Each structure stands twice: as structure tokens, then as C-alpha cells.
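Need C-alpha cells for this chain, all 153 residues.
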Amino acid sequence: MKVPAGINIDVSTINNGDVAVQGVTGIVIANNINGSIKLQNLVREAEASTINGNLDVEYTTNPKKKCRFYTLNGDINALFQKGLAADLSFESFNGNFYTNIEKIEALPAKIEKSDKGNGIRYKVLDNLFKTGQGGVMLDFETFNGNVYLKEKN
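Here are the C-alpha cells for all 153 residues:
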């Protein structure tokens, strides 16, 4: 299916194959159950979640607003432009974080507070990193998978 490039999209499927989005310059939200997600040539913020599939993300312009990427059973492969300046959050039960970015440093743990109507909850975020000068939050989470964060050479 073709759509106008500047449109914001929210796509999803369940047990119906893979999700692929390419060349959309708007905001992208993608969800899949039992399939992969492939997002290419992104320029804006994105949120993607899949169960039982890999999540591949490629940016032609690094995002300027928060992004979140999640897979339950799969790897996250994220490719950004050289010079990425971001704060990173990584969480995994049974996976690791790999990167080719040279200027990356660990940040101290922080506490995230949420109030969703049924009480206040606190979560300790302890796998935080900064690339470059820091900036936009990029949140990566897997349960059984690795995160591969790369900059284009």
C-alpha cells in the first residue's frame, strides 16, 4: 500500500505476516504479533512493538523526539546517522546491548514515577547511556533478544 510521505501512520497486524514501512516522513507507530517489523528511511519519532519477531529500524535523519522500540522474542537492529546525540535506555531479561558507537557513556540510575489512577508506581532505570552530548531519549527493550545500536559509517 502506498500513502503520502508526510502522513503520520499507525499500522498493526496479528498473525498476518510482517510489517514494513519505508520513506514515511511523519510519525510512525507499528505493532505486530508473530511477525517482524522493518522501518526504513525514518526522519521523525517512532514507536514499534512486536512479539515473536525482529525489529529493524533505520533513520536517514536522527530523531529529535522520544522513540520506543520493543520486542518480546527477537532482536532490535537500530541504525542511525553518524553523530547520534541521545540518551539511551536498555532493558532485557535475557539479552545484551551491542554498539559500534565510540563515544558512549553509562549514566547513573534514575527513578521513574508514574501515576495511573490506581496508586503511584516507581521504577528504577539502571541501564542508561549517553551518546555524544546526549539529548532525545531512545528506549530499547527486549525479553529474549539483543539490541544492536549502530551508526552509519
